[in-house]
Amino acid sequence: MNKTFFILAMLVAGILAGELIGDAAPILNDAASVIGTVWLNALRMTVVPLVVALLIVGIVQTAAAARAGKIAFTGVVMMITLLWTSSAIAAFMIPTLTSAFPIPREAAQALISGLTTMAPIEQAEPFTEIIKKIVPTNPIGSAANTDVLPLIVFTLAFAFAVVKLPEDKRRSIHSLFDAVADAMVMIVGWVLALAPIGVFALAYGLGVTAGSAAFGALAHYVIVLVATGSVIWLLSFVIAFAGAGKNPFVFFRAAIPAQAVAISTQSSLASLPAMLQGLNQLGVRTRNSEIILPIAVALFRATGPAMNFGVALYIAHLMGIELTAGQIALGLAAGAITTMGAVSLPGSISFISSIAPICIAMGVPVEPLGLLIAIETFPDIMRTLGNVTMDMAVTATVDKHVGEDDPAHEGEQA
What we know:
By secondary structure, the protein is mainly alpha-helical. The longest helix has 31 residues, at 70-100. It is 78% helix and 0% strand. The protein has 20 helices and no strands.
């Protein structure tokens, strides 16, 4: 948390320094541009290998969890359904919020003018052409060209083929890509260790061209994204009531300790003991919560699709990009699918790897992510809060509808 707020402070300091110095020091402007671009490229270089590795690991782990018994299978199916629902919510919420509460024009123009490293925006291909290319003729070429959508299709096919292999071969491939993912996450950690420098450099350039007016655009972004995540958080109470028959006030009271841990740590894993305790208060069978919750913490991030896809939609709104229905559909699918392979780490670490593939699939620039990562602290609190509460709602629902019927517990019941 201290480092996160330090990065945020460097964002503020960079904007103010750029506004103060302006064009008086062209050498500083050039240095900031070089440093910011190199740092952003260092983040981007991990996207393709990390997405491929995590997606394969996520699919294999999901299939293994589903084979663990009826209660695990039911939980996994419900989680996948909610991931797609979450992504669909973003497709509705972001355009609605940005239409009802549009970003101040001066703030938007200020932020756009400050993104000097961004490549020119190309007109999106027709949806029919995108569909024609959805199956890659050369997956390696797709990876080299950062054609994320065909790469995801190939990776999904490969992952489902791995699931069908004998256990020893499946375990070997899973271990390989798990190690690749760990190595990529380590590289991301090294790059993020330099985040204060990279963010300051990007923010300095923003301050030179946009000044403090950029703060208004960043604040608007945080409000819209947090509001979108809040819908998922509220949806968890609906699911707990409709699916598990839990009174919303009783459910909220039982979830308070886990939510407190989530807010303070921004970690679902750290909230696991408090979630188990809260579910016990709700009368959920311990043996069932001990099956579903670890699966949820490892594989299920309910707010991920809504907020990751939401970031891509917001960037499109900010840049004045008119998205077609096909682009939105591609983003919705990418948001739901890539979340299954998301890193179980604070959002500042998984931010680029989770959102860049969605942006690339939709034809939306990824350069703004280098600045938005500096204010991820505030949306990430809502991400974790929504994830933890939804984990508890799903566990309570599965316990109510499967419970004693799970064959995996027949011997235990006897």
